[in-house]
Amino acid sequence: MKHLVSPSILTANFANLQKDIEMLNQSDADWIHVDVMDGVFVPNISFGFAIIKQIKAIAKKPLDVHLMIVDPDRYLQEFKDAGADVITVHYEACTHLNRTINKIKELGCKAGVALNPHTPVAVLDDIVDELDMVLIMSVNPGFGAQKFIANTYKKINDLVIISTIRNPSLHIEIDGGVDSNNAAKLLEAGANVLVAGNAVFSATDPNAAISHLKNIN
Q1: 20, 35, 132, 179: which is the annotated catalytic residue?
Q2: Which of 30, 38, 64, 175 is catalytic?
Q3: Is 129 known to be catalytic?
Q4: What residue segments make up the domains of the chain, in order of their start?
Q5: What are residue 174's DSSP bridge partners?
Q6: What is the 3-state secondary structure (H, E, C) of the chain?
Q7: Fold for domain 4-214?
Q8: Global confidence as pTM
Q9: Does the active-site annotation cover 175?
Q10: Separation CA 32–CA 44 (nearest Å)
Q11: Which residues contact 104 (CB under 8 A, 6 or more apart)?
C-alpha cells in the first residue's frame, strides 16, 4: 500500500485559507488533516463546525478530522455533518472506546484512535481489529511546530507487530514534527500515513514539499 500524505491546516494561512485549500486540492496530498482542539483536553483552541463546513465546501480531498477534545461522543454527528470523512478520537479521552468507534462507523466515517506520546500501543490490543486507523502522536498534542519525539519509532514497530496479524490493512498515521528529515525512517518503521503541517506550510513551495513527502520510497 502506497503511503498517504495528510497535510495539517493548523499551520495554514487563515487570512487566506481558501487559497491554501485549493493548493491542497491540486497537490499530491491524499487527505486534509483538520486538528480540532477544545482548550480542555489540550491547551489550545482551534476549529469549530462552521470552519470545517467551509473547508469541506472547497476541499476535493477527504477531511481527516483529529479530535483533541474531551467527551468526543457528544459531537460525532456534528463532525460528520460538517464534512468529516475520517474521525479520530483520543484513547485518553474515551471512557467507552468500543461504543465510540462503533458510532463513528455507523455514521459512515473511517474510525481512528490517537495515542499520546506516553500511551503504549498495547492499550489497543482489544480493539485494534475494529479500527481503520491508529494515529501515533509524535509530539505532545496541542500546538504545531514541536520537536519530534524519537520513541515514536519504537511505538510504530510495536503497532506493526500487532496489526500485521490482527489488522493488516490498518492505517498507521504519524502526527507531529514530520518532515523530510524523518519521513523515510517513519515509513521504513511501518507508518503509512504522514501528517505534516509546518513542513508543508512554512516551505517556500508547499506543493513541492507535499510531492517530496508523497514520493519518498
Answers
A1: 35
A2: 175
A3: no
A4: 4-214
A5: 136, 194
A6: CCCEEEEEHHHCCHHHHHHHHHHHHHCCCCCEEEEEEECCCCCCECCCHHHHHHHHHHCCCCEEEEEECCCHHHHHHHHHHHCCCEEEEEHHHCCCHHHHHHHHHHCCCEEEEEECCCCCHHHHCCCHHHCCEEEEECCCCCCCCCCCCCCHHHHHHHHHHHHHHHCCCCEEEEECCCCCCCHHHHHHHCCCEEEECHHHHCCCCHHHHHHHHHCCC
A7: TIM Barrel (3.20.20)
A8: 0.96
A9: yes
A10: 20
A11: 76, 87, 89, 110, 111
Q: What are the cell numbers at 35? A: 486538528
Please state, for a pLDDT cut of 90, what percent of the chain lies above it: 95
Query: How many whole angstroms from its chain centre is CA 106?
Result: 20
With a cut of 80, say whether residue 145 has pLDDT above it. Answer: no
pLDDT tens figures, 113-144: 999 999 999 999 999 999 999 999 999 987 66
The type of residue at 159 is L
10 phi and psi, to 5 degrees? Answer: -60, -30
